[in-house]
Automatic annotation (TrEMBL):
Component of the gamma-secretase complex. One of its GO terms (biological process) is protein processing. PANTHER family: GAMMA-SECRETASE SUBUNIT APH-1 (PTHR12889). GO terms for cellular component: gamma-secretase complex. The chain crosses the membrane at residues 17-41, 56-75, 102-120, 140-163, 175-196, 202-221. Potential subunit of the gamma-secretase complex, an endoprotease complex that catalyzes the intramembrane cleavage of integral proteins such as Notch receptors. It is found in: Membrane. This is Gamma-secretase subunit APH-1. The keyword Membrane applies. Belongs to the APH-1 family. The keyword Transmembrane applies. Keywords: Membrane, Notch signaling pathway, Transmembrane, Transmembrane helix. It is a multi-pass membrane protein.
Length: 232
């Protein structure tokens, strides 16, 4: 369902496709930089010190989250400049795409690239060696990982809307809320293999972020009711 966001809301608009690809590229660069720093830290440390290695893993995850949000801010600044250019080139003095639409498409771009890498990791694990659950561990690894991938794609979409709204209206607490939610979801992965400890909080945060993003985008209870009842 998450990848349907692209097919039904973005695929027919060339400008939205460009914004989505650029957003995916920004997320990819943030992952590359954070992975490079984590790799250097691991190589420079003692591999036999399990406590240190676990601490470096936690540091890597938290640093990656902060770097992703920093690149989301840089992408917002870039798109803001792009809107000014589009307005200057247009005949009617209006931009062909609003900042709210850009926020949504940019969030989908971040989410789809995040989901693609999660799928690659799953496929790599599926190749072996070994069998999931053979030593009594949970056999729900692949199923829960798929649900986690989906929730991260949706969360990145909602976070994009919230983050851009906070930047646009200088509501820095909204930006801080996005960073805290991102840290909380990423940190919950350390509860695994107790998958309930990561999935349940992540889906609760997704529901809260979805409602928040819907309201900030101009949505209302009346509009939602009319949509569900298929009324114009």
């Amino acid at each position: 369902p998450a990848f349907g966001l692209f097919l039904f809301t973005i695929a027919r608009d060339p400008l939205r496709i460009i914004i989505l690809i650029a957003g995916a590229f920004f997320w990819l660069v943030s992952l590359l930089l954070s992975s490079l720093i984590w790799f250097i830290a691991v190589k420079a440390s003692d591999p036999r010190d399990e406590r240190l290695q676990k601490g470096l893993l936690i540091f890597g995850v938290m640093f990656s989250v902060l770097l992703q949000e920093a690149f989301r801010f840089l992408y917002y600044k870039l798109l803001r400049k792009a809107i000014e250019g589009l307005v200057a080139l247009s005949e009617d003095g209006c931009s062909p795409i609003s900042i709210q639409q850009m926020a949504y498409v940019a969030g989908v771009g971040f989410g789809l690239m995040s989901g693609a890498f999660s799928m690659i990791n799953l496929l790599a694990d599926a190749l072996g060696p070994g069998t999931v659950g053979i030593h009594g561990d949970s056999q729900l690894y692949f199923l829960t990982s798929a649900f986690m991938t989906m929730v991260l794609i949706f969360l990145h979409t909602f976070w994009g809307i919230l983050f851009f709204h906070g930047c646009e209206h200088r509501r820095w607490w909204e930006i801080a809320a996005v960073v805290v939610m991102h840290l909380a979801v990423s940190g919950s992965s350390f509860c695994n293999p107790l998958y309930v400890g990561s999935l349940v909080p992540s889906y609760l945060l997704m529901a809260a972020a979805a409602v928040w993003a819907y309201l900030l985008s101009g949505g209302s209870v009346q509009n939602l009711r009319r949509f569900l009842l298929c009324k114009c």
